[in-house]
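Case study B.
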Amino acid sequence: MREIVRWFLLAVLPFTLVGGKLALAADPGSMLKAMADPAGAPFFPVVMQVLQVLTWALHMVFVYTSIGGLFIAIYGFIKGGERWHRLSKATIELSKVSVSLAIVLGVAPLLFYQVIYDPLWYTSANLSAWWYVLFIVFLLIGYYFIWGAYFMKEKPSLSLFMSVVGIVLLLLVGFIIHVVNYQALFPEKWVSWYTSNGTTMNISGWNIYAFNIFRYLAFLVFPSISVSGVFLMLYNWYFRNREDMDRDYLDWAGRVGAKFALYAGIGWLLFHILYILTIPQDWNAKTSIFTWLSVLGLVLCAGVILAAQKDPAKMAIPSLLAGGVAILLIAVFREYLRIASTARFGYSIYNYKMNLEFLSPLLFFGTLLTGIILYAYAWWMAYRAGKTPKGKVYEASEMEHHLGDASVFIVVLWAVVFIGVGLIVIVRNYG
Amino acid sequence: MDVLGFYPMWYVPTIGSGLTIALIASIHVMASHTSVGASILLAYLATKAYKENQPQIYNYIKKYLLGLLVFSYVSGSISGPGIWFSATVVNPRGISALIHNFVWVWAAEWIWFVAEVTLVYILFYTLGRIDQRSWLRLAWTFAIGSWATMYIIVGILSFMLSPGHEKWFETGNILDAFYNKNYFPHLLERTSFMFAIAGTVGIAIASLMRKEINEKTYKDIVKTLSYWGIGGTVFGLMFFAWYVSTLPQRSDIILNNVIPIYLKLPIMVIILLVLANFLWTAIRPTAARFWMAYPIYILIFFAGIYPEEKIRETLRKPYVAGEFIWVNQIVSRDVPAKGIKSEVPIINEKGLLTVNPFVPEGLKKITPENEIMAGKAVAVLQCSGCHNVTGSTGLRPFGQKFAGMTDPNAVYNFLVSYMRENHPPYMPKLTGTDQEIKALSAYIAYMISKGGSVSAKIEVPKSSAEAIRR
Ligand code: HEM
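Model:
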């Protein structure tokens, strides 16, 4: 790795000198170094990196079902007919819940990203500051339209209208975050962007300097439809055995989902490859193993989904797994791109200054454990309730009651420990 | 070449970029305090429903939960990251300092945040579909988990105002930073007031259901909410007094001398109004009315939370985080424990324009041609966090603060004596080279002579830009 870095430095620095107007500006390498927060990272950067990649993949799954759910709902409303209307209602519901999850799951990668790649994220966001703030505004308005579509779901034309506004706003939100992620990859251009080649300072925050349509289509639009198709297959699988549900309808929905998954999946693969072709030569990324693994993941995923066309319910779980693997490989590839781009300037998160500290990671991992027990219990009960026909009450088993008691206990215990530690520290410092 | 880690500056004329934080944060405080307060109130009511066998209470809970989902959770879960998004573009280095210190604490909060959001859906969908005892357990984990998000974030918020103790700068210990002097009063104050906020809207929701629920249950619900509300308001006031007593000295001065009365007064009025409403409905539950309770709830936002957020933001000045980073992004003191060095000496020596990588080359070296524009750049970089530096309306406008000062030398003398040698506690010390202060003075005198208002555009004069190219 070191070698590559050194090699790139040698190759790139003369270039910026020849670049003329860039010559006197701070070189990107020392700029990135200066921007990394002087407080340092409180823990091993690689741990942050892994968590960032993993949580981003989770974030995206629900981003995809937010947008894809709306897409299928719109499609269904336009098709019309009883079955399609029913499906539209289901996918609006999917979208509504997914947006919540996409938001909460977006927080985690944002945290970890900002610890190890703060120069990239903060610069890029500040270059397009107004858009970055509008991200929140559009998301808020868009989400209310989605709720509106949900409340109006018995009135197809109104619900259709609200779904359309909702999806447009979510796509806009996705566009903004895409821009932020994309601009971040070009440290060598930031200064000339911001100063319009040294003639001014673009302090207004209204500028957008770079985007890549292939990346946008490959990272957001096509996967949304494809992944939501897989969710329809899961829908088929999950409700199939509930006696109060219409099995013909469910099987039909599964087939529709499998088709969406396949066709959009092909688009996904195509634009992913097109994006790879646009990556600048000097990143040396096109031939990297990570790049081609992400393509391989998509190909495999498409294969599983192709095989699923006959019996979508049966293949729902394998398709989900294949999709999950593909998204993970894409997440790794995305991270690899950041490494490849910043390596050109000698920036490496593995050299990030550290102020190692163990108490707060302990807090996190302890909380994670607590959370897992709590999530397991809550999700399990929800799963059980969902399997119970309408009008009936699910009676928890002895085991489930115990798990429930355990989860209340551990949550209370956690609060007691947290407050207790606080009291001790306060008494010691101020008593 | 010396560079410091500044980010591209964002400047919003007249209102100031900071207003975006205040607005989004207010929405967030409203939504989050409603939902955390409600989660505990609802768990308590559900326990009551189960123990006293009052199944109709569940109808009320279901309605409240739906209201929470649609109003509090949608706006709360978006505005929460929203504060962070806006802070990222208003105060990048401030938020970065917080994240680099507290990332794991925030990550722990995130675990509860995920729990909160998934549980509110699960509670809503499983109500009446799983047995009562199981549901009750979920409700209590939801309640305590929701409160966990509060007891975690309050530590970070308090640190933002002040680490509370010199010790932290030496130890860098996360416990010293988190559990600072301000922590408990702050937590208790919020925990109390949240019941008043959730209770107010709870009464509004109940009053919509008066005809659907039998009278006894109805009265029970309204009385319960009123008692919690009264308790919340009274304790909230007590803890507020304690909170004020733990403020750092500069914040005390700001609170007494800088914060205008039109921000302080409405808060007191709305607290009394909320209390009066609870007293009234505690005595006569059947007198609760939607058209009373709901407007009061809305008023809490405008008269209570928005001014409170503005005040809290101002009390922190001139810092944005931990008493070591100023609003203008400059690291103003050493934090030996973290290896952080004050940037003031190097800025005074080399110049702010020089060390900021996002200042065009043509403004780094000050000449008679570019002096005004260089001065404007200094004003934007160094003062615009708290001032409208290009106009005479809006946020503490330069047009007013420097009214009448059209002589650059007079401005210069004022700046040096008032802002560099002996700066007031609410403003950062003026930094930069003498030449830069002269440029700043020239710019200010120029903008005043233009009637106190100029364009926000910064243009590098052609000659300076070309001088660099050559
Ligand atoms: C529902 C609306 C949202 C949509 C449509 C959306 C979409 C996206 C997309 C398309 C990307 C990849 C962009 C690219 O690489 O070109 C992305 C990444 C990201 N999103 Fe979201 N997002 C949403 C909400 C959020 C929220 C609310 C947050 C934060 C709280 C967030 C945090 C992030 C972060 C931090 C990344 C980059 C992560 C990394 O590179 O590791 N997103 N999002």
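Residues 2-357 of chain A form one domain. The remaining cases will be described in the next quarterly update.
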